[in-house]
Amino acid sequence: MKIKLKTNQNDECLEFCNVERFSDGSGFSATLVVRSRGFSAEVPFSFEINPFDKFIVALEEMNHLLHGKARLKPNYEEPFIELELDNLGHLRVRGEMIEYSHMPQSLKFEFETDQTCLKPFIHDLKMWQDIPST
Length: 134
What we know:
4-stranded antiparallel sheet, Transcriptional Co-activator pc4, Chain A, 134 residues, alpha+beta
């Protein structure tokens, strides 16, 4: 399963690939693909159910109020994704991806798209909630 934020741009991308639910049902894992003005990363990204549910609620509120902020971050790790909608319809996408190893790497990214990309993204994320445990 893939979930992609449509950005109306060719060089900017936020996409969750290989989405799976933890075998105990407590969270999700995916490969996060980010492209932002020449920088890119493709890294594992895992998080628990509670932060995911809060992320969806915040996105729905943003879509309804036409402003706000939503953040997806695991409970005990630093990587995050944040979407912020201003009152002019600009959707700012930012985050930080971290690869933990003996030689760690990180990518901070930020790009902008528009509010029309938000509703389809929310719809696709909600489908994620129905994925059975592996």
